Amino acid sequence: MDSNSAQASLDQIPLWVGVADYVGLDPYPCRQNAPGNFAWIDAIIEAPDPAGLAYWGVLQAFADSTWRWPTGREERHMLCQWATSRQSGYVVFAWTWAGQSLSSQPGLLRVLARFNKGSL
């Protein structure tokens, strides 16, 4: 589900109840030339529970003309935010595109590896 369209994203969350077993919520906080907007993740996390929506958290681990690479600290923050939510699971959105690749981000890879080992 598009989770990066401000109020329109929040408004559509109840519409997904009963339509899918799980919905991926993908509020990406790290935009080019701006600090991470982690309050937006909190807003998205709070919205599905009253509606009864089962969801997966989708973490940002990519960059393009709109989005920048999260720092290792920012990725850890996102992981901790989602871990305290009522998510059913999580997925990391990463790609190899236009010269951008998660494999070129050792700090992010370390954070993700630690989290997957349960030692974040």
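The record above closes out task 2.4. Task 2.5 opens with a second protein, given below.
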Amino acid sequence: MKIVVKLFHEIIIKSRPVRKLITKQLHYNLENLLKAQVPETKVYRRWDHIEIKLPNDLPADTQFNIKEKIACIPGIDFFLVVDEVEFESFDDLVAQGVQRFSDQIIDKTFCVRAKRKGKHSFTSIELERELGHHLLTVGQSNGVRLRSPDIELRLEVDGTKAFFIKEKIAGLGGYPIGQQESVVSLISGGYDSGVASFQMIKRGVKTHFCFFNLGGSAHEIGVKQVAYFLWNKYAASHKVKFISVPFEPVVEEILKSMEPAVMGVALKRMMFRAAESLASELAIETLITGEAIGQVSSQTITNLKLIDSATNAMVLRPLVAMDKQDIIAQAKRIGTEEFAANMPEYCGVISQRPSTKVKAAAIEKAEESFDFSVLDNAINNRVVQSIEKVLDGVDTDTQVACVEIPALSDVVIDIRHPEEQEQNPLHLTNNQIIKIPFYSLSKRFPDLDQSNNYLLFCDKGVMSKVQAHHLNLGGFNNVKVLQLP
């Protein structure tokens, strides 16, 4: 199996030294990720593309996972799954093209598209015409159609090699991770912070996550799921940190010591101070937020300026001019929409009467009565974890029954995200499997046949325990957790 990776178009126009540096980084990222799945992977860096060679006998699900992984690596415009052949002459090349393409055009209209690099006795157009003529002669097609054919037959010629293209798959675009300095993204699990984090990852920025916990362990587990999903899907070539800061005492102190009008801005200022302190420990000087102008009361230009004045760090807001519907649409495309739709928004409940234009004097006066030792304690009590281990050993504060071997009558509910279900299907020989993503379970479970016993399954077991616990509390005692050995 061979794959040809084409560089993102912005990379191609860079100067020779910069282009070489960026391509080298993309080569490293591809090799790092793919060898973890298939150790026999070989990655070769060329001037205008990168070639990946994989064993030809890979199982279909592994091939699918490899293509899914490449499609989510920043820095790639598109990639081609190809058959590579050597040819000795123009006639030999045409003959090999007929051999590979003739079965694909049966009862279809077609056209041939060729690209060529190097010195040859023929042009790309001559190759298209000759190969198309032979296919029309020997094949069982419905004829040639240059505009909107049923199928386009594509090949690329490089020297004495030809690549017959089997698939063309769109890449993520952007720049390879590792090309820019690192940042810390303030993530809440909602639409905005997830999309903002993704935007930075796509631009080649190594993105760490900082979470201010306002809602207990269930909220923290949910946000960890989002952060892990983003990292695992788009940024797993580099290790990053997940920082959790217990911020309930800070909120309590704000509620006790400040007027409602300034509470929202004050909370954001406290978060920025804490994030700056934690980022400095990682030698990072830039913070990322999902704020957009005018979206909520704390996000007016006046209030954003006041929030920024609490820190010396650079603050980047990738979504600053985006509409909410565009943000939600982006969340849907990248796979975080359902996480966000079921994540409560805690920051918005701190005040029912916020001001859209907080005065600097008002916030300074309010902070004079704030006990900053509470903020210091929150920073000191933060927990820093490597993102790849962020769900390992999570204490869910739940006591639910776990089963390793299901009974024949047990019905298993796969509560993983639909993309995880598709990439790594759950196979059980003797049990019925129902697919209900965790974010839909509470609504759909009461409609199931309650005479059955149900086992919840997810990869780590964390969300299964949380969901089973909630269902048990709701009076459903026929729910346990499946933990496969």
